[in-house]
Amino acid sequence: MKIIIIGAGRMGIWFYKYFNFKNHETYFYDTDKVKVIDLKDKGFRYHEIDQIKDFDIVFCSTNISSIKRVIDSVKNSGFKKYFVEISALKTPIVKSLITLEKPISLHPLFGPGARTAKGKKLIHVLLKEKEEELAMIRELFPEMEITTMSAEEHDRLVTKTIQLVQLISMIYNRLAIEGDWGSSHRMMKLVESVSLYGSDELIKEIFELNPYTKELKESVMNVLEKIYSGDYTIIKKEYFKDLYTKAYEIMEDGL
Fold first, then answer.
1. pTM for the whole thing?
2. What share of the chain is helix, strand, coil (3-state, %, to 5)?
3. What are the tens digits of pLDDT across the range 78-95?
4. CB 26 within 8 A of CB 19
5. Could you tell me the sign of the dihedral formed by the alpha carbons of 10, 11, 12, 15, in that order?
6. Alpha helices in 197-238 (DSSP H)
7. DSSP 3-state assignment of 230?
């Protein structure tokens, strides 16, 4: 297939290499001219976004706030085939996505450091035709595990799996004493690794654009009030001992 990657960030480049390895005719587009020159010098194939109507797939790997502009550009180009996007939030962009002929919304549960696609997990957010969307996803990513859910389910899940972990990490790093970085630092590295994301811009977008961020804040404040009032009870004996033991076991296994 003929595929163009819109957005040559770290994830965009990961998927460019993946599709290229699969022998698809792969191109990229990015608005950063310095990045474009650098990637072209390294052998990556470039293509303009307004000349893509003959492509089989447009694969969008931009930041969340840019996706609507990309969709408008794609529609103006006359493109009618599959548009695949991999943003970390879905609710803010669903209305724009469903105006396309064949949209597919994915969230890869791995980062750009992944060495292989085998066994990696993808969340598929249902937009129009479930079986048609899944058939294309399986054709593109036969080695990956796919879970389907709604945009609301996805974004609520993001608050607990990405935002909560990042919130804990950010609070710790604001309060930690600069020179006190022994085992605690290793523990926070473990916490950060769970979130899969290292982009400051992405985290900022998720907190600003996720409509369920307020619910996360209310839940966190409710727990904090119970802890500081003394009403919070540990329902399992040696809960914290078990938690830390498991964390260190994971670190020793080489996360």
1. 0.84
2. 55, 15, 35
3. 999 999 999 999 999 999
4. yes
5. positive
6. 200-209, 213-229
7. coil
